[in-house]
Design brief:
Layout (H helix, E strand, L loop, with lengths): L1 H6 L26 H9 L4 H7 L3 E2 L10 E2 L20 H5 L4 H25 L34 H16 L12 E5 L13 E2 L4 H8 L1 H8 L5 E4 L3 E2 L2 E2 L4 H11 L5 E4 L3 H6 L10 H11 L12 H6 L5 H18 L19 H14 L1 E5 L12 E4 L23 H8 L5 E4 L8 E5 L4 E3 L2 E2 L1 E6 L10 E5 L3 E4 L15 E9 L5 E17 L2 E20 L5 E9 L7 E11 L2 H8 L4 E7 L16 E2 L2 E2 L6 H11 L5 E6 L7 H6 L2 E4 L7 H9 L32 H4 L17 E3 L3 E2 L3 E2 L5 E9 L5 E10 L10 E10 L4 E8 L6 E3 L4 E3 L3 E8 L8 E7 L1
Parallel strand pairs: 3-5, 4-6, 5-8, 10-11, 10-23, 23-26, 26-27, 30-38
Antiparallel strand pairs: 1-2, 6-7, 9-27, 12-22, 13-14, 13-18, 15-16, 15-18, 17-22, 18-21, 19-20, 19-21, 19-22, 24-25, 28-31, 29-31, 31-34, 32-33, 32-37, 35-36, 37-38
Pfam family, one: Fn3-like
GO molecular function, one term: alpha-L-arabinofuranosidase activity
InterPro entries: BXL, Fn3-like, GH, Glyco_hydro_3_C, Glyco_hydro_3_C_sf, Glyco_hydro_3_N, Glyco_hydro_3_N_sf, Ig-like_fold
Length: about 850
């Protein structure tokens, strides 16, 4: 089909170095299939050239017309790390929408922006990291434990929800399968059985995984993305599985992925994962780079994010691997580049204009998704929606933090609306009291004045980078940094495109114009060397500065201009670079003073929770209650808990708005607060969306994609990968809020469901019809959830999601929601084969608007 569709494209002018007679070589002929072109080109490469193409930063091979290409790009919830882009809610928030159709629209918009950016970058010269067409998303790992810092990147704890949302992402990114060229390539990660801890991921061994857990929980989403969505890349994980590193695991990459599932695409290593094979203190399963590289390729890892594969020619010469094995991987890589049109001109996707980036339609889409992601957890005494004549106090560390909205692996929006900004637009000054209140974790807060810095008419700092440690020569890049710094090279992430991972230096310059006379603290955390200058004079320096230390206090005078410059040098090869910087005034927390300032309000909104600076990927600095990006406890930080308690003494209703990328232990807060909203990290339109919900301009309908446990004590050991006791499917205790929970400003009633037939046999389809009535006074949406249970299977999950649909039902109306169910909806773990099969017997279909079995109705079904 692809070849037929290419014919109408005509002859494309592929630019390469042609042989003397000027004839076109087979690999240069766009009328041939990508596979035919790859087969021809691989035979023209030297051994060293093949090895170079198997690294994520692949150099040009001018004699064959192969351009330099970096395979690493990000689009977790919008085009990441490549300048201005539309920033949608963090992934876990989009999962709360339970709207895979909207998610497909989101990632169609993302792929439009990505293609437009690629076309523009290509016009400007050689492509750098974060400028290509291969995007390492989605993350379809199961969020098995809320302490995992990267759980925010996933689609939650349920394998079916994760699968459906993950497939929508892949299809939105890759585009129509019958197009002449693939739009982009997506990547299913991290394969497999990977979900923390972050601090020991380079040495961790996930072992003794029960077959039931493996096939019923950890594998389904990957299988669906491979076999149904036809994802073009799979990323293998850092950890070991049953003793073998995932990127060198024959069972995973050969027997399961390729032999059983028929996967034909690329396997890429997580960044630095091959180094873990041999590096002391990590897996240490191989003696050196050559053995590690040979082992990874032989197991099926085609592309390394890293540089160990430079040793592959040495490995071939030493007899560790045959060159023909490299050919298999290189063919896959070249085929992918031909599929994308990366080596051709006049590709159909090149016509997408750059004006789509940050366009109004995409901003509207970001707002729609932010609204759909919000979960109304609690609404005691119907405190919500708020009356617009109320005097409202807004308190808390997340009320006016725009960066927190972005999550991680993010792009940079042209504007982010915080909740404070949104409320200022809706309320007169006399009706709104804003009080910062407290820091997220500390009894002393830094109130930033970063926004009072600008240079050359641009906000923030001019950032100049050199790929040497002497700050000399031609800069690698010069960029404007408009927000407080949060840089790290963990995960092989660069500070800026074109900058080294190690052995680099930087100079950051701006002009600070204080708005009032006061002491301003310059606060740093750094793995590297820092030198700070004010008006040309060195005033402070430090090496490996920890815990946001104040290196210098400036006695600033209102209106005076201060030239601020600091230099950063990093040359270590055995640790990651880190630089965090902000400047501002220290404000000791005074709980009583905060309460006094808001005592006249009719209602108090507390915008609390955590942020991506506290939870995330292998973070370098530990804070109280956090370890390397993971959490040691899930409770709300103590200082916030104390402030909420102090506010409760005022006797005013409190609405708690929780921002986080994971479940929080909010049992005390649920008793104290009348209303509770889960906002996640809601993206650029988050403030608007939350305000819309608060005032009833939007009727919330989000549902939790994860269980909210009452406290840390309800969790099993973080390092135990057994599912027993975890998630709604295996938990026996009562959580605070269940998976699938989410309230509305209206009410829904479920009628008696009907099946088109009460028996099911392999290859058939049946229709489940569920009447849903809106019995309240507002129009609204409901997420209809269908679960499967097999009575009598003692080791099985209590019930497991097998269908869902978000539907609009007007007030007073009834809709009949139809689900077409087939084999895939009824697969169950088969103990006789240790795999998922159709097993005959009696089952129950449970249905309703939550996973709470006490609220679900049921209908019986016999499978033959």
């Amino acid at each position: 089909m692809r070849n037929k569709l290419k014919t109408w494209m005509g002859t494309l002018a592929f630019i390469a170095v042609l042989p003397a007679m000027g004839q076109q070589l087979p690999y240069q002929n766009p009328k041939l299939t990508p596979e035919e072109r790859a087969n021809d080109l691989v035979g023209r490469l030297t051994l060293e050239e093949k090895a170079s193409l198997m690294q994520n930063t692949s150099p040009a091979i001018p004699r064959l017309g192969i351009k330099a290409y970096d395979w690493w790009n990000e689009a977790l919830h919008g085009v990441g790390r490549a300048g201005i882009a539309t920033v949608f809610p963090q992934t876990i928030g989009m999962a709360a929408s339970f709207d895979d159709e909207l998610l497909y629209q989101v990632f169609t918009a993302v792929s439009d922006e990505a293609r437009a950016k690629y076309t523009q970058f290509r016009k400007e010269g050689d492509l750098k990291r974060y400028q290509g067409l291969t995007f390492w998303t989605p993350n379809v790992n199961i969020f098995r434990d809320p302490r995992w810092g990267r759980g925010q990147e996933t689609y939650g704890e349920d394998p079916y929800l994760t699968s459906q949302m993950g497939m929508a992402v892949v299809r939105g990114l890759q585009g129509p399968e019958d197009a002449p060229y693939d739009k982009l390539h997506a990547c299913a990660k991290h394969f497999a059985v990977h979900s923390g801890p972050e601090w020991n991921r380079h040495e961790f061994n996930a072992e003794n995984i029960a077959p039931r857990d493996l096939w019923e929980t950890y594998m389904p989403a990957f299988k669906d993305l491979v076999q149904k969505a036809h994802v073009k890349e799979v990323m293998c994980a850092y950890n070991r599985l049953e003793g073998e590193p995932c990127c060198g695991n024959n069972r995973l990459l050969t027997h399961i992925l390729r032999d059983e599932w028929g996967y034909q695409g690329i396997v890429v290593s997580d960044c630095g994962a091959i180094s873990d094979f041999w590096r002391k203190g990590d897996h240490e399963t191989h003696p050196d780079k050559a053995h590690a590289s040979a082992g990874a390729v032989l197991s099926g890892t085609d592309l390394e994010c890293g540089s160990n594969y430079k040793s592959l020619p040495e490995a071939v010469k030493a007899g560790l691997i045959a060159e023909s094995q490299l050919d298999i991987s290189v063919k896959r890589l070249l085929k992918a580049r031909f599929e994308l049109g990366e080596m051709d001109k006049d590709v159909c996707w090149d016509t997408i204009p750059y004006s789509v980036v940050d366009c109004q339609a995409h901003k509207d889409l970001a707002l729609r998704m932010a609204r759909e992601s919000i979960v109304l957890l609690q609404n005691r005494n119907n405190i919500l929606p708020l009356r617009k004549d109320m005097k409202i106090a807004l308190v808390g560390p997340n009320a006016n933090d725009s960066i927190m909205h972005w999550g991680n692996y993010n792009g940079f929006p042209s504007h982010t609306e915080t909740l404070y900004e949104a409320l200022k637009k809706r309320l007169p000054a006399s009706q709104l009291i804003y009080e910062f209140g407290c820091d997220r974790t500390s009894p002393v807060a830094l109130e930033s004045v970063f926004a009072q810095c600008a240079i050359d008419g641009k906000p923030g700092f001019r950032s100049t980078y050199w790929n040497n440690i002497k700050l000399e020569g031609i800069p690698a890049t010069v960029v404007q940094t408009s927000t407080p710094f949060h840089f790290t090279t963990l995960g092989a992430t660069v500070f800026a495109p074109g900058v080294n991972i190690s052995n680099f230096s930087a100079r950051y310059e701006s002009v600070f114009t204080p708005e009032k006379t006061e002491d301003i603290n310059f606060q740093f955390s750094a793995q590297g060397i820092i030198r700070l200058y004010i008006n040309g004079e060195e005033v402070a320096s430090g090496k490996y500065v920890q815990n946001h230390a104040t290196l210098y206090t400036l006695k600033a005078e209102k209106g005076k201009q201060y030239d601020v410059k600091f230099e950063f040098v990093f040359y270590s090869n055995d640790r990651a670079a880190q630089l965090e910087f902000d400047m501002g005034r220290d404000i000791p927390v005074n709980l009583q003073a905060t309460a006094d300032k808001v005592k006249d309000a009719d209602v108090i909104l507390f915008a609390g929770g955590i942020s991506p600076t506290l939870e995330g990927e292998e973070m370098p600095v530990d804070a109280e209650g956090f370890r390397g990006g993971d959490r040691t406890s899930i409770e709300l930080p103590a200082i916030q808990r104390q402030l909420v308690g102090e506010l409760k003494k005022l006797g005013k209703p409190i609405v708690f708005i929780n921002y986080s990328g994971s479940a929080m232990g909010l049992a005390p807060e649920s008793e104290i607060c009348d209303g509770m909203i889960q906002a996640w990290y809601p993206g650029q339109a988050g403030g608007t969306a939350i305000a819309d919900v608060l005032f009833g301009d939007y009727n919330p309908a989000g549902k939790l994609p994860v269980t909210f446990y009452r406290n840390t004590e309800q969790l099993p050991d973080f390092e135990d990968y057994a599912m027993k006791g975890r998630t709604y499917r295996y938990m026996t205790e009562t959580p605070l809020f269940r998976f699938g929970h989410g309230l509305s400003y209206t009410t829904f009633d479920y009628g008696k469901a009907r099946l088109s037939q009460n028996t099911f046999s392999k290859g058939e389809t049946l229709t489940l019809t569920i009447p849903v009535s809106n019995t309240g006074t507002r129009d609204g949406e409901e997420t209809v959830q269908v679960y499967l249970r097999r009575p009598g299977d003692a080791d099985a999950p209590s019930h497991t999601l097998r269908a869902f649909k978000r539907v609009y039902v007007p007030k007073g109306g009834t809709k009949e929601i139809k689900f077409t169910l087939s084999d895939d909806n009824f697969l169950w773990f088969d103990t006789s084969t240790n795999n998922m099969n159709l097993i005959s017997g009696e089952y129950e279909l449970l249905y309703g608007g939550t996973s709470d079995t006490n609220q679900l109705k049921k209908i019986r079904l016999m499978i033959n």
